[in-house]
Amino acid sequence: MYKDQTFWITGASSGIGAAFARQLAKQGAFLILSGRNQAALEEVAAQCGADRCLILPFETTDYAALPKLVDQALAWRGAIDGLVNNAGISQRSLAIETAFPVYQKVVDVDLMAPIALTQLVLPHMVARKSGRLVFISSVAGKVGSPMRTAYSAAKHGLIGYADALRVETAALGLQVHVIAPGSIKTDVSRNAVVADGSRRGVSDEAIENGIDPDKAVQRMLRAMARGDREIIIARGVEQVITRLRRQSPNKLFDMMEKMMAAGYAQKMKGE
After folding, report:
1. Residues 6 or more apart in contact with residue 135 via CB below 8 angstroms
2. Which CATH superfamily is domain 6-236 in?
3. Nearby residues of 15 by Cβ (< 8 Å), 6 or more positions away
């Protein structure tokens, strides 16, 4: 399905991004690997076959640099068949305690940066009448999650952008996939920002017991191959709440409020 296609993956140095690279490499894809940590990107490229990878490190919010980077990506093999917007940052802090610059940072990284890159790749895909645009949102982008007001806002926004873009480009030959993972065993919680913008440094129990990223990505790629437009990779209560959001919003809100009243925030803070 993906053999000899060229996929550009952001946030490819670890977690879901690295798993995307490994799984696409197994299917014979060519990979453009982006992130901030060049050494980590080189490790992922070695796992995937370095001769089939282009390492293109960059800061996702360096918008002035993006046009040149897109030119480099296109020049490598002459086309981008898939763009996986995966780079992001999470949050663990109560809204009332969170400094406004934290909101600016999370929304910039998780929403504006993937929009900026997509807007530059989009004309190329439209001209070819072919391409996949993949947006890694979150269950928190479907259901407002406590301690994640900035993150939920950004990930909800990403789904809105992707859904509208899909409607505009479906007749032009493009496929737009929104992926909403639940707890995947990555460093997302350790790397999350807290109320003052500093790195959290510890993980969540749910994340530590989460789905293996390579197994999660295998499911994502199968769903993409089927043409699924919204792909939710979750289990347990995270799967339940996404269903409730559609079927019984008030029941969901009651459930989430009870969870908060039972001490969810204190547990997350380790109090």
Report:
1. 85, 114, 158, 159, 161, 162, 176, 177, 178, 179
2. NAD(P)-binding Rossmann-like Domain (3.40.50.720)
3. 184, 186, 187, 188, 213
Residues 243 and 246: their CA atoms lie apart, in Å, by 5
Give me the half-sphere count of Cα atoms (radius 13 Å) on the Cβ side of residue 171.
Answer: 3
pLDDT one-digit tens code per residue, 89-138: 999 999 999 999 999 999 999 999 999 999 999 999 999 999 999 999 99
Q: Provide the percentage of residues in the chain whose pLDDT is more than 90.
A: 96
User: Is 151 in the active site?
Assistant: yes
**Which of 2, 63, 103, 151 is labelled catalytic?**
151
User: pLDDT (tens digit, 9 = 90+) per residue, 51-82?
Assistant: 999 999 999 999 999 999 999 999 999 999 99
Q: Is residue 271 pLDDT above 60, yes or no?
A: no
How far CA 1 is from CA of 6, 113, 223, in Å, comes to 12, 28, 12
The long-range contacts involving 31-40, CB below 8 angstroms and separated by at least 24 positions, are 31/6, 31/7, 32/6, 32/7, 32/8, 32/56, 32/73, 32/76, 32/80, 33/9, 34/8, 34/9, 34/10, 34/58, 34/60, 34/69, 34/87, 35/10, 35/11, 35/87, 37/13, 40/13, 40/14
